[in-house]
Structures are given as C-alpha cells and as structure tokens.
Amino acid sequence: MRSLPSPAVEVTELEELPEQWRRAKIAWLCKELPSHKNSTYVRILNAQRKWITQEDATYITLHFMRTRDNEASFRVYKWMAQRHWFRFDFALATKLADYLGKDRKFTKCREMFDAIINQGRIPSESTFHILTVAYLSAPVEGCLEEACTIYNKMIQLGGYKPRLSLHNSLFRALVRKTGGSSKHYLKQAEFIYHNLVTSDLEIHKDIYAGLIWLHSYQDVIDRERIAALREGMRHAKIEESKDVLLSIMRACSKEGDVEETESTWLKLLESGCSLPSQAFVYRMDLHARTNEPMKSLEIYKGMKEQKIPISVAAYHKIIEVMSNARQVEIAEELIDDFIESGMKPLMPAYLNLMHMYFHLGMHDKLELTFSRCLTRCNPNRTLYNIYLKSLVTVGNLEKAEEIFNEMHENGTIGTNARSCNTILRGFLALEDHVKVAKIHDIMRQKKYDVETQSLEKLHYVLSQNRKVVRRTVSMKLDREQREILIGLLLGGVRMESEEEGRNHAIHFEFNESSNVHSTLRTHIHERFYEWLTPSSRLAEDDHEIPYRFSTILHSYFGFFADQFWLKGRPMIPRLIHRWLSARVLAYWYMYGGFRISSGDILLKLKGGNREDVERIVKALQAKSLACRVKRKGKVLWIGFQGSYADAFWKLTESYVLDGVKNLLAPHYGLTGNGREEGQFDDSQTESEPDEQGSV
C-alpha cells in the first residue's frame, strides 16, 4: 500500500543553537509545559515573548509531536500563530494536523485543516485522508456529514484520488444507518461509486448491494438505475445475495410491480436461505397497492403456518392493510393479537384503526380506541388530531374545545395548522364569533394558513362581529419562548449572523438517535413555528418534521446573539445567574444533558470560562443545588449527584415534557448502583462548587 506524501518540516535542532542560554530555556519549556493546564500554558509562554522566535516555538511544537503529546503541540502552535512575527509554515501545519487526526482529535485537526485553507493553500492528501477517517471514527452526531464534506473536497478541491479503503469506509458508514435515515445519503453514495469507476478501482459486492438498498428506500424509485446496478453485478459475476433480493422486492412492491416482486420472491425460495419476515411484509404491501387486501391476509396467515416469527413491521403492515380495506372485525382481531404479543410500538396500529373508524363513521369506537391507546402509549399530536376531528364531525364542540385546549397547553402534544383548522371549522359551524376570532388570532400569530373551504365563512363571521377587536400581530417572542431559547443556547444550539450583524438566526439541530431529542424536536418546531424559514415549515405531520431546521434572519434575535454568540463562538452572558429559571434549566437538561445509570444528572456547557462557570455554580447553589464541574476539551459538564439530582429534578420536573420524563427522572426505571463512564465520582471530578480554580 502506497504511503501518503507529506512535506518535510525544516527545523534547527537544539544542539545547533549557538546560545547556551536559549538551549537551556527551550529545554526547560519542553520539560515544564506538559504538566500545566491551558491557562498556565499561555502565561508561561507569554513570559517568554521577549526572546522566543518562530524557530524556537517550531522546535517545541515538533518536540511534543515526537513525544506524542499532540495536545501540547497544538497549544504551542496556537499561541505561536497569534504572535506578530508568525509566518505560516505549510509543512508544520500539515504535520500537526496529521498527528492530531491520527490521534482522533477531529475538532483540532479540522481547525488546522481550515487554517491551511484560510492561508490560500490546499491541504496535503494525507491531511484529507486522516481527517476523513477521524470523522468516521467518531460516534458523534454530524461527524458523518463532515466526513462526506472533507471527502468531496479532497476530490473536487485537491484533485486527489483517495485510496480504495477510504472509499469503502465512507460508503459503509453511509449504509450503516437504518433505511429511513440513510436514504438521504443516496447522492453521496452514488458519488463514491462514480469515483470508484473513474479511478478504475475494484467495486466490492457490498457497494452494489448498498446502492440498491439505498435506492429501494427512496420515495420515488429509479428502476432504470437499479437495473443498471444489477447488470453491473452480473458483468462482475457477483451473485445477488439475500439482502439484494430483499431490496429489489422492497423497490418493486412500492411500484406495484407484481411480476418482478413475485419472481424475486421465487429466487429467495430457491436460494435455500431462511425466509426473512421483511419479504412477507413487502408482498403484503404489494397486494395492498394492487387492491388485493385479502391476498395480503393470506400471506400473513402463511407466515403463521410456516412458523415464521411475526415481526412488529408485519403486524403494522397487515393492520394497516385491513384498516384501509375497512375490514373491521379482522383489524380488531389483529390488533388484539399484537397487544397480546407484548411487542411495541402499538401507536401506528392504533392510528390506522382510528382512521378506519373515522371513515366508517364509527365515532364511539374511535373514542374508545383513543382512550385505550392513552393507557398503553405516550400521547402524540397525530392521535389527538384524529380524535379532535371526530368530535368536530359529530358536533361535540364542548369536548372538542376541551381536547384542543389540552393539546395547546401540553408541550409534548401541542397544536399545529391541522388542529387549528379542525376546531375553527367547528366554531364556524356554530357561528361562535368570539371563539372563531380567538382561534384565528392563534393562527395569525403562528402563521398557519386557513383552509380554503373555511375562508369565505371566516371572512363573513369576522365582518359581522363588531365586538371583537382584531389585534395587530407583531413578530415578538413571548416569555416562555425566551426562556426556552436561553436553555437551548446553554445546551449547545447554534446561531448565525448576517455580515452586517443586524439580523440573526437560530439553528436547531437534534440527535436522531435520542428519544428525548425526537420528542423535543416536535415541541420546538411547533413552539417556534412562526419564526421558522418557509422550507422548515413544510412538514404536515410530526414524522415529517426534520431533525435540523432554522429560524428566519431577524433583528429580534440580536439580544441572544449579543449575549450568547460572540464572533461565531458560544459564550456565557455576565448576567446568566439572573436568567437560570426552572424552565431554562429544564430545557437545558432536555437538549444538552442526560441522566446516567446511577441516576446522577449531567448538563453540557460550551463557551464558558472560569468566571462564567462560577456565576452559574453560585446561582445553582442559591437554589440549594450543589454541583460538580468537569472540563473535557472545550466542553464543561455540570453534574448533580444523589440528593442534589433529586432536588434538580424537583425544581424542573413541571417544565420537562411529559413524553420524556421517564427518560430523564433521576431514578426512574433504574436498578442497581452501576456507574457509567463519565460519571462524576470523586476520582474524576476536577472542581467542587466552592473551589473553581481548576476549571
């Protein structure tokens, strides 16, 4: 395997220096600096400003690289780069970036990478390669996207041809996620395939299988592309594996192609492999699309006869098919079997059942199913919207108003454009002018569109109602929204500013693998809906809400930018101790904190220095919340142990969303006294509430 070229660093060795005093001072710095923390590091180096030169600092940086103390090298280099005499050294920056990347310090490696580009230079091939691998090795949200960015720049900016191993590693990372979240990586996967072909590199069978798999999960199936990939496999004499056949069945069933799906099914049978339950699910879906629901039921019964384990996906699909076919008794029997199996989630099955009851006008059964669902599942907005629509349809406006108010006040559920339009139709039918105006005010404030069929009657009601004064709607954050933003910014939400610095935007990013973030994402999307960009407001259902969305650029966010975001970096306001309300702490916890196995609570904090942390700790102590502080890189962790975790929870519980309380309560569902890595035990704690000197 060829080695990646890297420029050599020219440096004067210590024994070559003519002045003995300079040699002694440099040797002393090499020995002394590693034992100190960053703040002391800077003070020691600042004390040498009268005599130290770039050559001296370069030698010290290289010395630490030779001893594999890459953190020390990085600190010295950053200090050197801030001096007036600093001259950019491409070879040194490359070597340091490569060492940091090999040590999996991807943030610092990226900082060096960006510094090279900012100097108008193109990083070496080794730096591109090592940084991409460092990102792929990090189990951190967003690192895969960054790895793709660096890989693309390596080819498009650098003009390099990556190694086969790098192509394969990145491709494997793209298809490692579940189908729903991986489908967005199709374009990147095709780019990797294109580079393999144009570089005349060997294309492994997993590349073909992965590409077909990604294509099968797309909303619009590209049959010609799948056929071309299968032809490529035949040309390379690669047999279609079970996974490939399953992907083809998934794609063909979506298209309603009975012939191709069934022929692929026969290939699966002939292969002699154990029949996966997914294949049965795709066949059920196929016959449902071709309006043959009873064939889908036969396939489901065939699974039982062949003693194929019935999966959650199989239950969901057959209940969906029978509900859409309005087969009431069969659907009810199936959901009873599903409940008895003990498998979860039950929510999709209940929703399909309620949709069936609504379309059949069986509103009593719908209400009963709604109540049963609440005893077994966490409530969500889709469930409540169906029930609300049913109540409005039967004219039970009193109960409908009660349900709407419950949705509006419960942060876990919330209301959206659909909820408001449903209750608005009911009040318009009653010609209740006051309530119509109230709902319309909510819709204007949240920028929800009124349904076309309600517009004419709405204008008539509003024109007839002279007692109701229509308030002017202005873009303004209410107190709750302001407190939520403070909590989210403390937890790590980013901001962006215009070049002029007048208008600012909030970027909300949520972790797809976190159940807490999944619930919080829906709530934040609803709570800040009127502030979101048009593209961020496209989602009609909760499952369509993206995990990343942004507000518009607006001057109203200037206060938060001035206090929390300085020159593109997070900071802690001087008056933060005045703003740490229970709601702020709750949203900080939900977004940037977690509960560990022992029941202790941790909060993540970025951008704070020693004085900032002291202010936060003192404010927490004033609330009788003693805590410990630990720094890890650029992130500070504030920990609450034992009874103080209980006290923190007691303070914030009423503001934590109902749907995540069982995931965040200090002792909910915990057994034993096991400790996780990262817990704040005495041996790990660097600072106590009363002695912050080491932060």
UniProtKB/TrEMBL annotation:
* UniProt cross-references to Pfam families, sorted A to Z: LAGLIDADG_2, PPR
What Gene3D superfamilies does this protein's entry cite? Homing endonucleases, Tetratricopeptide repeat domain
Spans of repeat PPR? 311-345, 380-414
Q: According to its UniProt record, where is this protein located?
A: Plastid, Chloroplast
* Keyword terms, alphabetized: Chloroplast, mRNA processing, mRNA splicing, Plastid, Repeat, Transit peptide
| Region: Disordered, residue numbers | 672-695
Identify the GO cellular component terms for this protein. chloroplast
- Identify the stretch annotated as signal peptide in this record: none
Ranges of compositional bias, category Acidic residues = 679-695
Q: Does the keyword Plastid apply?
A: yes
| Record-linked SUPFAM superfamilies | HCP-like, Homing endonucleases
The similarity annotation says: Belongs to the PPR family. P subfamily.
Q: NCBIfam families from the entry? A: PPR
Q: By what name is this protein known?
A: Protein ORGANELLE TRANSCRIPT PROCESSING 51
Originating species: Cocos nucifera
